Every structure is written in C-alpha cells, then in structure tokens.
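Holo model, protoporphyrin IX containing FE. Inputs:
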Amino acid sequence: MSPLFYQILHVLSAMLLVGFVISACADPRPERKKSIMIITGVLSLLVLVGGFGLAMKIHGISNPLKFTGWMVAKVVIWLLLSGMAGLAFRRSTIAGVLTLVTIALAGGAVYLVYARPVIFGI
Ligand code: HEM
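Output:
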C-alpha cells in the first residue's frame, strides 16, 4: 500500500473517531451505546493500522519498540481516545469535561505529528 493510502485511512478514521466520541458525550442515551461502541471500536482499529502503516512507510519504523518519543505519545493518546466513548456512556454527568478532554487529546495528537518533540530523549 502507498503512504497516501495510510495517510487517508489514518486521518479520516481519526477525524471520524473524534466525531463519534464527541457525539457519545453529547447524547449518551443507553440505546445508542451498542452502535457507537461498535463504530468507535472499528475506527480506533483503523487509526492504529493507519498510524503503524505511516510509521513504516514514512519513517521506515516497522517495530513499535523502535518508535520515537512522539510516536509513543501518540499511542498513549490513541489508547485514551479509544476509551472515551465507553466512559461517556458510564459517566454521562461529566460529559462536558469528557468533551474537552477529547478535544485536548485530538489537539495533542496533531501537535505531536507536526512538532515531533523529543520525549524522554527518543
Ligand atoms: C496508534 C496511534 C498513532 C500512531 C502510531 C500514529 C502515527 C502517525 C504517523 C507515523 C504519522 C505520519 C507522520 C509524518 O507525516 O511524518 C501520523 C500522522 C498524523 N496523525 Fe497519527 N498516529 C496515531 C494516532 C493518531 C490520532 C489518535 C490522531 C488524531 C486524533 C492522529 C492524527 C494524525 C494526523 C492529523 C496526522 C498528519 C497526517 C499528515 O500530515 O500527513 N494520529 N500519525
């Protein structure tokens, strides 16, 4: 697959993931839970596949143990983002805070990819 394929897969699924998480925060009715959890689960997997594909195609790193600091930080953000929809349904009283946290996580992921800071010396 070309880098372009992974770029589109990664960015499109990341945008949709953030959108569906915020949608869960905005309307956490129990009847929406199953469908949102399935959709965000699939999108989360696609973000991961796209991210690892980009690490391989653009940076030549196919082993996650050799990821640079900003890549590791993105994996942490991805983990947190992937748990947000489930949290939105369980803790609907703090939906506003969860929305802000989701926006901050997405902003952090975008910052990391463009600033590529050195974290813990890697
Ligand atoms: C497993 C987690 C992730 C990994 C390993 C990962 C890795 C990467 C890599 C290697 C790139 C290419 C960097 C480059 O062009 O030099 C990239 C681009 C990008 N990622 Fe991620 N990422 C992850 C999660 C996320 C998340 C959760 C978001 C947003 C919510 C995100 C948003 C972006 C954006 C906007 C780009 C820029 C694409 C471009 O300019 O071509 N990533 N990511």
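Residues 3-115 form one domain. The chain has one domain: 3-115.
Archived with the compound record.
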